[in-house]
Structures are given as structure tokens and as C-alpha cells.
Amino acid sequence: MSEASKKLLEESKARRTYRKFLPDPVDMEVIKDCILTAGTAPNGADKQPWHFSVVIDPEMKKKIREASEAVERDLYENKISDEWRADLKKLSTNAEKPFLTEAPCLIVIFKEYYKTLEDGKIDKNYYVNESIGISIGFLINAIRNAGYASLTYTPAPPMFLRELLGRPEGETPVMVLVVGKPDPSYELPILKKKTFEEIADII
């Protein structure tokens, strides 16, 4: 058992977040399997409160990028604190999001607070934030396991995604997971993960 856990740890440590992707198309069967893996995550009352919109259409990716950059410019110019800006410096991020059109695949992730049934009744979900967080973790690791790179991108605010993708009122967009083959020319930032002692204790 220890060998298996060590293997997964080493594989997970090798996963890095890329902000530059090759244009090579993704295998949609692989993406479907990864999303179905995300759908196995534990969740409140087994309501499975999530939806994944897979975007490969260039025109829709362009619309998402344009809307994202508009909200990002407002964030960087008017809403972000100096402390936040300093924390982001090591990642070299800014309002420009070229990866949204460069990458072959965007997975827009929605959390579902409720569903409106055919008779007009509201079917509510439970522990939605916890459920979607676990599911996204499953998805990211499944994508890594499949040999693709991913980037978690969270436009702030993200609500334009619901309108663009025609999702119902009971759903709220959480993030865009950008997926594809990493561009080897991208210079990864030097990051240091915390040790076990820094993130956990045994009681």
C-alpha cells in the first residue's frame, strides 16, 4: 500500500499549472472519462450538484476570453489590493488571458444550488460548495493522469459564463478549467509546497 501512495504522491508533485498550451486537439473520449471521474466524487445527499460545459468551439472560446479580460481589467485596475497584487507577482498574471483561446479545450464548471422541475417546483441541493470542490479535485487529478495539463482560471465575477453558455438560473459558474498539452516553452515559476508538518498534525 505504501508503494501505491508514494507513487501517487510523486505523480501529483509533478503536476504543474501551465498558462501556455499547444494547439493540439484533446481526445474527447479522454475528456469525457475525466468528467465522469469527477462525477464519482462524494456529494451532499447524492444530488450531484454540478455541470461541466466542455468548450472546443473557437468562436465561443473567443467570446469567453473577451468577457473574461473585460472583468479582469476592472479587477486589476479597481478592485485588487496591493497585498494581493504582490502575492500574484511570482505567477506573472495580468488581465490578458490568451490561454483561453490558445488551449484546445475549456471546461466551464458550474455548481448547482437548485433545479427547477417540469412542474415548477424547486429541487434544492445540499453541501454544494463542498461537493463541487471535491469534484474539481477529482477532475484535475484525472486530467493529470490522462497526460494533459490544466489551469484553474476564476474570472471575478464569473456570472457572465452562465449567460454565454445558456445555463439555468439555479447554477453558478465556479471556474474555467483550461485543458491541453503544455507548451514546453512556458517558463514555470519556482514554487515550494509546504511540508506535512506545515499543513497537518497527528492527534
How is this structure best described in words?
Strands 1-2-6-5 form a four-stranded antiparallel sheet. A two-stranded antiparallel sheet has the order 3-4. The chain is built from eight helices and six strands. With 203 residues, it is an alpha+beta fold. Strand 3 (114-116) and strand 4 (122-124) form a beta hairpin. It has helices at 2-14, 28-38, 58-79, 82-88, 99-102, 128-145, 160-165, 196-199, and strands spanning 50-55, 105-112, 114-116, 122-124, 149-153, 171-180. It is globular, with a radius of gyration of 18 Å.
Entry summary:
The protein is built from 8 helices and 6 strands.
List the helices and strands and how they pair.
Blueprint: H1 2-14, H2 28-38, E1 50-55, H3 58-79, H4 82-88, H5 99-102, E2 105-112, E3 114-116, E4 122-124, H6 128-145, E5 149-153, H7 160-165, E6 171-180, H8 196-199
Antiparallel strand pairs: 1-2, 2-6, 3-4, 5-6
